[in-house]
Amino acid sequence: KKTTSNGTDPRAIRQWDNEHFFHPWDSMGVAGMDRVIAHEAKGIYLYDPQGRRYIDGPGGMWNVQIGYGREEMAQAIARQAMSLSYHSPWAFASEPSAVLAKKLADMAPGDLNSVFFTTGGSSAVDSALRFAQFYNNLRGKSQKKLFIAREKGYHGSTYLSATVSGKERDKSFLDTEKRLVRFLPNVNPYVRPEGMSVEDWCDLKVQDLETAIVEAGPENVAAFIAEPILASGGVIVPPPGYHRRTLEVCRRHDVLYISDEVVTAFGRLGHWFASEPVFDIVPDIVTCAKGLTSGYLPLGACIISDRLIDEVSGPDRESVLFSNGYTYSGHPVCCAAALKNIEIMERENLLEHVRQVTPKFQARLKAQSRFEIVGDARGMGLVGCVECHVPEGRGRSEADRLELDKDIGARIDAKCEEMGLIVRPLINMCVFSPPLIITEDEIDEMFDILERAIARVEAEVL
Ligand code: PMP
């Protein structure tokens, strides 16, 4: 009988997990999903208690940059926990949090030099949005409160970060603060009308923002929030020039630009932050989390431009608290993990490595389009999505086709799992965001499995 390292029978783990762990994004009414039990992990691989090996296609949740099981990371965490396990971030300074704040300020674009530490991505976005409103209150523009966000965007699961998240399915049975937000339609070039050029599509999408601001009244709009690439909405890469032009629109209307780099920062696109080197913008606020610690411990940050801070602070200003914070803001052990993560990424030249293996990753990804059930394969850097659809016709009713369509990602996932690859699709979209240490051979191994799985599902449904 196999047991885990703590001696618990895997059947008991499965049972207690099904009965008592209310998982995030869990579906009500489905009693127990019988998830694979993650037992150990090393490099890009996860192992279950039986020792079966799986490539981690989504890289945890887009966050395991340096790979699993790094001993020096465990040691850095242990050392920090022994010497200073915690301090109040309000009352004290400490070496790990100060050194990390300086590092992030150096890495972040332009004059973004004030680092507000949070517990993860949602709380980083929440803090960025609250800062945007706070900033306007201090400037005497307290009517500037609205946020502009985008369909298919995802920014988190606090009330405010969920409010600006634009995935319809996520909203159906949960409430959000609708009066605070306006959504722009999908920016995905894949859905542009037939015959329209990508340039015209870009014009239209920039115009969407301008129209939304003008219709709401610029005097009422606080900020535009955007992921450089909409990650969990299906790895949507906006058309070239979109970021720079939307930033210009924001500047014209005194609207802050918040770039949510929770997925794109820390090497996913071959740079520490993607905003400036990849998309040619210096936003007003950047949020990050995930790859900051490679998932070894939770940590996020919201990094704010000096220009904004200068505008609302200084000797002749009334002293006003930014009354927002967390017990674990700048947690020393999490900051020590982030510093070790960055040190490893620097020492192993991981940014350069990502740029080197990206052509292979993107070529293998885009080659999936040859399947009839693949509608689109898209991505950038080491992130990609294969969007699947059951084609129309073939003597099947439209209702049957739609039913199959909903299930198609799960079918591919099940076949991949049998062959040692974790996919975990978003309905009909299989997303890939592997650890950045992945080699070209491992990229081949991953896509070889995916291809075999898609071919088998295609044979079943066509
Ligand atoms: N922003 C983006 C772009 C994300 O992808 C996510 C997480 N998927 C979040 C924010 C929320 O981060 P967290 O889950 O760490 O709260």
From TrEMBL:
It is an enzyme of class 2 (transferase). It comes from the Bacteria. GO terms for molecular function: beta-alanine:pyruvate transaminase activity; pyridoxal phosphate binding. It holds the Pfam family Aminotran_3. Keywords: Aminotransferase, Pyridoxal phosphate, Pyruvate, Transferase. Its EC number is 2.6.1.18. SUPFAM superfamilies: PLP-dependent transferases. NCBIfam families: PRK07036.1. This is Omega-amino acid--pyruvate aminotransferase. The lineage of its organism: Bacteria, Pseudomonadati, Pseudomonadota, Alphaproteobacteria, Hyphomicrobiales.
